[in-house]
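Renewal narrative, Specific Aim 1. Our central claim is that a sequence can be written position by position from structural information alone. The example that follows is taken directly from our test logs and has not been curated for this report. It begins with the structure tokens describing the chain, in the order in which they were read.
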């Protein structure tokens, strides 16, 4: 059996971020208000490891939520050193971190190499300079390209984070960003829809009528096309949609935007809806069995059985069944 991959997440909200992007309030998004202490980080590691079979699976630790390489070098080293005993003991294999494209240089990368960092994720968000400027990111698309190249030249895995629906963004610009990320040969990617969160400049703009958030339907359609680009270029998609924090799930911190706790499932449901289009028509056989890969069963049926319900409009009986012998997004049909 193939080993599972686990990431122990350590959220460090807005640590060392030199700019306040118009959409950003990491404390609200992550559900974590303060930077964790060393004791809290160690406790979090221990708690996660107590639930993971680290001997037979692959475990990494991820520093997320801020601009890790923007903090002083000695502070970076302090955080990284906390993980080293677990790496020496074989409980954690490597470290992953997220940072800004304009805070990458050779000196920093050398420190990260010495401390078992394997993957660096860049918060690119967009590769369109007008969108970056409108979002007050404080860096350019060129900064992202230079950082990505330097990361790869030093042997790290490259992760890229992008957002859809940013100020000044469009469907065309979103597809352009996805294409550029694929062209840079990123190993991993995360796709997030832009949300209007309390306490952000975007909230002001939304109330002033200067910003319109994407609808959930628009966000799902755009994300589906981004996923196609990444999959075609073999970019591993780590996450689709924001992690469901308490504030987002309750709606307490969310003003507007396409948030859904099962956003990834909605996107993948639409892939199968597209694949099933030839079946959505009257047929002389009234019963149908659709055989799909076992790993795709839930999304083939669809979120809240959306795809199965659509098929029931045309057939008296619909069965969607797993077949472990087929892979990817392929299927075959039996009529009876």
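The sequence written for that structure reads:
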């Amino acid at each position: 059996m193939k080993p599972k991959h686990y990431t122990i997440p350590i959220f460090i909200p807005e640590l060392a971020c030199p700019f306040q992007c118009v959409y950003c309030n990491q404390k609200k998004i992550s559900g974590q208000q303060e930077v964790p202490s060393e004791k809290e980080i160690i406790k979090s590691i221990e708690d996660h490891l107590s639930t993971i079979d680290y001997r037979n699976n692959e475990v990494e630790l991820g520093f997320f939520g801020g601009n890790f390489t923007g903090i002083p070098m000695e502070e970076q080293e302090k955080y990284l050193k906390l993980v080293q005993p677990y790496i020496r003991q074989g409980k954690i294999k490597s470290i992953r971190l997220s940072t800004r494209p304009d805070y990458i240089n050779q000196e920093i990368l050398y420190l990260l190499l010495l401390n078992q960092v394997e993957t660096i994720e860049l918060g690119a968000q967009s590769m369109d300079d007008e969108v970056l400027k409108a979002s007050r990111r404080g860096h350019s698309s060129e900064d992202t390209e230079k950082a990505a190249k330097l990361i790869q030249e030093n042997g790290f895995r490259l992760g890229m984070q992008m957002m859809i629906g940013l100020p000044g963004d469009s469907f065309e610009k979103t597809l352009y960003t996805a294409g550029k990320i694929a062209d840079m040969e990123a190993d991993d990617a995360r796709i997030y829809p832009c949300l209007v969160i309390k306490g952000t400049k975007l909230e002001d703009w939304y109330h002033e009528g200067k910003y319109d958030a994407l609808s959930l339907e628009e966000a799902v359609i755009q994300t589906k096309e981004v996923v196609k680009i990444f999959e075609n270029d073999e970019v591993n998609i780590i996450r689709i949609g924001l992690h469901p924090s308490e504030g987002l799930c309750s709606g307490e911190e969310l003003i507007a935007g396409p948030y859904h706790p099962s956003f990834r499932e909605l996107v993948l449901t639409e892939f199968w809806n597209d694949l099933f289009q030839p079946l959505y028509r009257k047929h002389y056989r009234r019963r149908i069995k659709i055989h799909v890969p076992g790993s795709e069963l839930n999304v083939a049926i669809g979120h809240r059985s959306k795809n199965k319900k659509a098929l029931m409009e045309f057939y008296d009986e619909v069965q969607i069944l797993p077949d472990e012998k087929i892979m990817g997004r392929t299927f075959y049909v039996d009529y009876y």
